[in-house]
Amino acid sequence: MGKKRKRQRPAGETFTLVDNGENLLEGLVLRRDAVTVAEEAELLTFINDGLARGRNGSIRKPTYLKAEGARSRGNRRESLQYGGFFDFNRGRPGKRGLVPPFPPILERLVANLVKRGFIDASLNPDSCIINSYAPGDCIPPHTDHAAYARPILTLSLLGEEPILVGRSFRSTRACAWEPIVGRSVTLPRRSLLLLGGNSGSVAKHCVSACAGPRVSITLRRQPPEDWRPDASELIGGETHKKRKPLSGSAKRRKKREKLLTRRTEPSRRT
Ligand SMILES: O=C(O)CCC(=O)C(=O)O
Ligand SMILES: [Fe+2]
């Protein structure tokens, strides 16, 4: 008597893409309405303030970063980091203590996602990258570093853009890709995407040049404090390899892409 019935949430959308006899998208789950309209507005106020302070120099590197130009390996967007530092140059978790701890608004976000049944309490994400994409900005194909617990979470705010998830992609122009083996998943505003299982560990993901502004909050649990990168990552590892010199045709393509980018990229300096 008087037992409160827990409201059952729909399980979320799942995906299948069989590749080499296995479901490459196993563990990929899209949950709509993970935060309310009011919570989205509150998060965006916090993020816009952080970005403005990053641009005027009162929040510094590496908490605020702006990726653009030739050295950013096709990345283009602004980001803010809290909790754990992700070293973009090396593509792996970086030194602890370099970025501020989670502010209360991010603590509340995680608590709400647990309370609403979107994530397990045991996941306990303690690091966050906020990516702010202006129209034309992108994140190239990658698999998040294996040292982060799965699932990786990404909450979409402000705009609706597709994420591509798959094994291989082809570059169609600067900052844009299409799946060869993979698929496009539209991420509605306020939705949470869980990249678990094969989708988070075998597949790669990317967001091509955005049609409009979009903000994402990526939440991950850091490796334990005594974690150290593999020897293979320190010398000659995948993420740290010296880049091969470009061939003549690759050089010409890069030059064309650069010209195209210059012509199409809106000026974002304020
Ligand atoms: O913007 C997104 O939803 C993806 C971000 C992402 O893949 C990352 O930060 O590793
Ligand atoms: Fe990612």
Automatic annotation (TrEMBL):
Name of the protein described by the UniProt record: Fe2OG dioxygenase domain-containing protein
Signal sequence coordinates: none
Alphabetized InterPro entries for the sequence: AlkB-like, AlkB-like_sf, ALKBH9B/ALKBH10B-like, Oxoglu/Fe-dep_dioxygenase_dom
GO function terms (MF aspect): demethylase activity; mRNA binding
Region annotation Disordered: where it falls in the sequence: 223-270
PROSITE patterns assigned: FE2OG_OXY (PS51471)
Listed Basic and acidic residues bias regions: 258-270
Basic residues: compositionally biased ranges: 240-257
GO biological process: mRNA catabolic process
Domain called Fe2OG dioxygenase: residue spans: 124-223
Domain of life: Eukaryota
Pfam name, any one: 2OG-FeII_Oxy_2
